[in-house]
């Protein structure tokens, strides 16, 4: 089953992406699959913050882990709604999620 996730890129364009829930992907990998400008330099290990995004609506996300919190405490352009895309697995719960890509560091 796919879920619809909306991601606003750094130019303000909103992309409506169909995200598969059966491939163990995360938001960073989804962005890369759709060729959105997300580096993912660390390969999804919560060590670079190049996949930082802002959560724009109220969708239940998994709790933030210690590694993600530590990385965001050192990253640029962090807001109260910042998350690392690599730490958000794509599940059916994400239907309707709206995100905005953070500026590049």
TrEMBL record:
Keyword DNA repair in record: no
UniProt keyword terms in alphabetical order: 2Fe-2S, Iron, Iron-sulfur, Metal-binding
Domain 2Fe-2S ferredoxin-type, chain residue ranges per copy: 1-105
Protein name stated in the entry: 2Fe-2S ferredoxin
Acetylation found in the keyword field: no
Molecular function GO labels: 2 iron, 2 sulfur cluster binding; electron transfer activity; metal ion binding
Organism: Flavobacterium granuli
SUPFAM superfamilies (alphabetical): 2Fe-2S ferredoxin-like
